[in-house]
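User: Can you predict the 3D structure of Nuclear pore complex protein? Sequence below.
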Amino acid sequence: MALTYPHIDTGSKSSKKEGQAEALDDILGNRPEGFQEVFETGIEYQKFARALEKLKRHRKGTDSNIDILAILPEFHALCASRAEQFEHRKDSDAGYLAYGALDDFNLWQSETHTWFLLEILADAADRESQPIGKGPDASEWTDRDLIEHLQQTDNTFRHYRAVKYWLELVAPTFAPRIMTKTYMPQSSLRQPFSFANPPSSNKPEYQDPDATTRDKTKLSEINQRIEHDLLKAVWEYIRRGQIEIARNACVKAGEPWRAESISGGELYSVSLAFTDPEYDQQEGPIGNKTRSLWKGTCYALAKETSADQYERAIYGALCGDIPSVLPVCTSWEDHAWAQYNSLVESMIEARLSQFGRGGPSKILPLPTTRTTSAKDIFDGLANSDDHALRNGSVTRNASKDLFNVIQTSIILEETDQLLIKMVRDAKALDGSGTPLRSHMLRFMAHFVLLLRSRSPTVPKEEGDYFIKTYVDYLISKKLYDLAPLYASFLPVNLQVETCSSYLKTIDGPKKERQRHLTAIQQNDLDLHSILKATVDALLDQSKQELELIGDYKANMERSITAPITDQEKASIRALEWLSFDPPQYEECLHRSNYLTRKYLLQGRLNTALALYKSLPSDIAQHDLHEPTPISHEHLYYRELFNSRLLFEEWRDTMKTKPGAKAPGSKVLAWELDIKVRFELLLKELSWRPIDTWRKS
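Assistant: Sure. Here are the predicted C-alpha cells for Nuclear pore complex protein:
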C-alpha cells in the first residue's frame, strides 16, 4: 500500500501539490513563531529519557535486547497526563494561546492513542495459546468455546479483535442525556374533570412501544427528543463496546424491552458454578443459542428506513452491518470501527456456520460484509469521496492526520514503508528551511527504538536519521545530559559526530566540562574517539593562524611570560578535553607537541610555555622508565622553557649592573648574582647532549 497523507485532497495537479505542501508543513514543520517558547517546557524530554535510561540500566550486562515495549505504559501515561493538561487550556478564550493549546492537546492525545495501540497489538501478538479445557471433538463445543478457540489459533482474528478493542477504548468521552418519556394512558383522555392538559387526540402517548408503528402516529416533540437522545446514548455506548452500560441506560429510561433487544449477542455457553460463594453463579446455559436469528432481526431493523438513524446504527452495529452505521460516524476512528466490527462479526458467523450453528435464513438474512481485509478498510478511508473523512476527522487537524497514518502503518505492519516516506518528506522540508516539528521528532525517535527492539529488519538509515535528528535537537536545546543516551543507539561514527558537536561548544570551567563526560561514559560511548574529534575540530578553527609564520624576530624578543591572544587561549583550552583521564594522555601529548612546534616556528615561546603549563604535571610520567619519542619531545620542551626563563632572568640581571660610582659591596653582590645565574643556565643547557635532542 502506498502510504499517503489522508488529508490531501484530490483535484487538479497544481491544487493537489499546493495542498500537500501546506499539509506537510502543518504536520512536520514547527509551529508559528511564539508557540515553541510558550508551550515547550522540556519536561517531556526528561521524562521519556528517564524511562528509557532506567530500562537500559536494568538490562545492562544481559544478552537480551532492550525491549522498549516494557516502558510503553509509561509513555502512554505520560502522554495522557500531558493531553489532560492541555485539555483544560484548549477551551480558554485567550485567542492565539488557546489555538496553541488545542493544537498541543490534539498532538498529545493522538500520541497517547498510538502508544496504546502498540501496547494492545503487542499483547495480542505475544499472547500464548491456552487450551480451552474441552474435549477433542469440536462439534460438541459450545459457541463460546468455538470462538475462544478461534481467538487462540487465528492470528488474523486476534489482530482484528485487538484493533476493534483499541478503537473502542480511544473513542472520546461523551455526556449522555437520558430521560424517561412522559406517557398518558388513554383512559385519562376520557376523564371529564381532569385539570391536566391532555395530549392531542392525534398524538396519543402509549406505554406500548409498538404503538407508533402500529397506529402510524408520532410521539410528542419532547418525547421524540427524549427518545432520540436515548438512542444516541445507546449508540455511543455500543460504539465503545459497553453493551452492559447501554442496557442499563435503557432500563433507566424506562425501556427495559430495548435493553433486552440489544442483549442477544452473548455467545451461547454452559457455565460452571464458581466454588467461591462471592460470585454466586449458577451452573447452567448462558448466552443466546439462536444468536444468528437475533442478528437477522437486528439486520432487518437496521434496514428500516423510517427509523431514527441512531436506532438503525445500533442494530447495524450489533449485527455487523456497515451502511446503516456509517451515517452516524463522525471521525476516522468511527469509520474504522464500523469496518472492523463488521469484519469481526463476519468471522464469528463464519466460524459458527462451519459447525452448523445458526447462519442466515431466507426470511432473516445476515449482512454480507464488503470488506475482506484490513488493507481494504484503510484504502477505502484514504480514497474516500468524503473530504472530511480523508482529513481524519470532521474538522481539519493535520497533527491528528499524521498519527492516523502512523496508526494505519502499525495496524497493517507497514512501518518500514512509513519510515522511508517520512524521512524523504522530512528531508525535503528541512532543505526548504522547515525542520521536523519537535513533538513529532521526539515521537519518531522513540517509535524507531521500539520498532528496532521488536524487529531486526527496520530500515537502518531511516531509523538513524530520526534518532540523530532528535539528538541534534536535544543539543540545540542544551539538553546535554540527555543527548548521550539517545546517541548510544546510533552507529559509532554518528555517536562521535553528535557528541563532539556539543562538547566543542562548552567552554566553562574544567570541572564543569568534566561533568559532561560522565554522561558519555555512563552510556558506554566511545569517549576516546569523541574527545579526539572534539579537540581536532576545535584546533581546525585556528588552523589558519597556526600556519602563519609571523614576525619571528620580534616574537623571540618578547618575554616568555608575555600575554597570549584569545585564539591561542582557545587552542590551549581545547586540549583540556584530552587531559581529564590518563588513558587520553597520549593523544593529548601528540596534539600538544604539534601545537608547541607551530608556536616555536612563530617564535611564540610565551604561548608554548602557557600550553605546557596547562597540561597535567604527570602527563609524561608513565613513560619515564621507557620513554617514547612523544614523551621525549615533551620533556625537552620543559628544559627549553626552563632555560629560556633562566636566560631572561640573567639578561634582566645584566641590565641592573651598578654604575661606576656604586659602592663596592653592591657591585660585588651583583657580580655574584650574575655568576650564579650563569652557572644555572649552563647547567640547564648541558643536561642533555645536543645529538640526543636531534635524534629524538
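Residues 526-619 form one domain. DSSP finds 32 helices and two strands in the chain.
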